[in-house]
Amino acid sequence: MSSVPEANLYAPPAAHVEDIVPDADVNTLGGRGARLGAALIDSVIGAVAAWSLWALTPVATLVSTGAWSVWRGLATQTIAGLLVFALIHGWLLARRGQTLGKLMLKLRIVRSNGERASLVRLLGLRYAIGWAIATVPFIGALFVLIDCLLIFRESRQCLHDNIADTIVVVA
Predict the structure, then answer these.
(1) Model confidence pTM above 0.85
(2) Which segments within 44-156 are labelled E, that is strand?
(3) For position 65, what pLDDT does the model report?
C-alpha cells in the first residue's frame, strides 16, 4: 500500500471562480414603450417625407394618369423612401446607431454581441429587406404583424432585429 492519498476524481474544483458581470449600461435592452415611441417619432418624420415626395414629384401624376402602373409607382416610392430615410437618419445610424426617434428617447442599435452595427447592416438588412417584403400584398401585412409582435419575446428582438442580428439598447 502506498502512503500517498489517492485524488478524488469526482470532487468539485478547488479554484474560486467569480462570474463576470457586464457593464449594465452597455447591454441594457431598450424598453418596449421607448422603442414604440421612437418608432412613432420616426414614422411621423417618414410620413412627412413620403407625403412630400408624393406631392412634389411627378410619381402621383404618372400613376393617376395611367402612364405608370401602381406597382411601378410603389416600387419607385419604396426606393425613394429608403433613400430619403438614409438621408434623414444615415449619419446618426452610421455614427451612433440611432435614428432621430431613438436619439430623442435615448436608445441605440447594436449587434447582438454589443458591437457597433455597420451602416450597410442597418440600412440593408434591418430596414430595406423589411420594407421590400412589406410592399408584397398579403405577405407584407403578415410580415409587419409578426415583426411587431415578436418584440414581446424575452429578447425583445423584432423580426427585423433577427434578420440583421441587432438589438436595441439604452444609449
Answers:
(1) no
(2) 107-111
(3) 83
Number of Cβ within 10 Å of residue 77's Cβ equals 19
- CA dist., res. 85 & res. 123, Å (int): 9
In the block, residue with C-alpha cell 409587419: 144
SS3 assignment, position 108? strand
Whole-number Cα distances in Å, 47 to 44, 51, 118: 5, 6, 25
Poorest-pLDDT segment among 5-19, 77-91, 127-141: 5-19
Enter the DSSP assignment of 7: P
Contacts of 125 (CB under 8 A, 6+ apart): 160, 163, 164, 165
* 38's grid cell: 421612437
Looking only at the bridges linking them, the beta strands covering 166-170 and 107-111 are antiparallel
Bridge partners (DSSP) listed for residue 148: none
Question: Are 111 and 117 a contacting pair, CB within 8 Å?
Answer: yes
